[in-house]
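Take our chain:
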Amino acid sequence: MEIKKILWPTDVSENAALAMPMVQSLSEKYQAEVHVLYVIEGMGPFGAWYGDFDRSHADKIQQMEREAAERELEDICSKNLQGCPLFVRHIAAGEPAGEILKLVEREKMDIVVMASRGRRGRFLFGSVTERVVKHCPVPVLTVPVPAKE
């Protein structure tokens, strides 16, 4: 198997960071590009949640999250991916598993490396990871997240 492009989806959590050593190792071994993806989750239907809340408020919240994600990814990449031949940052908005699968197709990824569960995961295998594993057209390497006591 030839690996030229690696996708590392991250929710910038401690759990997601557990996949970083594997991403670094594969990138160095195969001289592969690393694509880092952060997905801003959709805000769902709009309505009067707490008083006056319209589309412009939701847009501002998403813009703030996008800017924070850009800063986080820049920090992660500059600190952890310097040994990689090339790293590319992606930010998408939507349902995480769907956005991961879209990027795999669009960028012609060779492998996805991700933690077995993300930030909110209380189960052995997270729902996003499960959907990616079930529907991904390329291999998905899952890095185990130790259970918290």
